[in-house]
Design brief:
globular; Rossmann fold; 7-stranded mixed β-sheet; alpha/beta; single chain
């Protein structure tokens, strides 16, 4: 899929695609900085789009690590199926991240170590965002991590309802510049300083 196709998907689905261009390699690196690929058995990605983060996740994961991609856009879903057809231990689902609980049950995944999200929470309907975050919090293991990026900090207090311990990093080498939120379930973990 060429960049104009990505732009086209943004123009017809601005609330769910969220950006005119795919994420930069710099943003990809910042999104994956906190992932311990040696210890990760189950990684989920919401809204992988054209697979910018996915490529790096698949390259770094252990062979037995199961990666689950959940993509609601049908064009991107088909592209991902074609692009990663040879990958083992990769599950690609066409559906909403709201149903993460059902999806992990369907594939007998006992817990999730990391959830990487490219979803635009600033433009998603509030109810959809609430369902996604509440269900994500339920499937993550106790010391699991939810990593998302946004173009503003407007949703930080909303995210803190579900993940009280959030570390924020800015990546200016992206169009537009983005904030990466590393979100943990418990306040007293001590992993991040706020």
């Amino acid at each position: 899929m060429k960049i104009p196709s990505f732009i086209y998907q943004y123009l017809i689905n601005p609330r769910t695609v969220g950006a005119l261009l795919p994420s930069s390699k710099y943003l990809s690196e910042k999104m994956l900085e906190e992932i311990d690929f040696e210890k990760a058995y189950y990684i989920v990605e919401y809204g992988p789009g054209t697979g910018v983060f996915t490529r790096k996740i698949l390259k770094r994961r252990k062979q037995k690590t199961i990666v689950v991609l959940i993509e609601n856009n049908k064009k991107f879903y088909k592209l991902l199926k074609e692009r990663f057809i040879q990958e083992k231990n990769l599950i690609i689902i066409h559906g909403s991240a709201e149903k993460i609980g059902k999806f992990v049950n369907d594939y007998q995944i006992p817990y999730v170590d990391y959830v990487i999200s490219g979803l635009p929470f600033a433009s998603l309907p509030q109810k959809v965002s609430t369902n996604i975050l509440a269900n994500t919090e339920k499937v993550l293991k106790e010391d699991g991590l939810f990593v998302t990026f946004q173009y503003t900090k407007i949703k930080i207090s909303f995210l803190k309802h579900f993940f009280p311990n959030i570390n924020i990093k800015k990546e200016i080498r992206n169009i537009p510049p983005a904030y990466v939120f590393n979100c943990m379930k418990s306040k007293g973990d001590g992993r991040f300083e706020n």
